[in-house]
Amino acid sequence: MSKKKDEPFDPKNLKPEELLKFEIATELGLSDKVLEKGWKSLTSKESGRIGGLVTKRKREMRQEALDSIGEF
Questions:
Q1: pTM above 0.70, yes or no
Q2: Phi and psi at residue 32, in whole multiples of 5°?
Q3: Which pLDDT score, from 0 to 100, does residue 12 have?
């Protein structure tokens, strides 16, 4: 097993990508489950939903950045 999965989840010490992931989990109502039992407690359906929304959000942020560059 991955060492990272065995580490306890610390919401106060998150990298930007982890913060985005946790924000989406919160929006989906999964933050309590993650805080209590960690990311590995999520079902594959829940993890997939989070992953899909992370990808969508990153794509939107990248497009916004490109659009703002084009405005100059």
A1: yes
A2: -65, -40
A3: 82
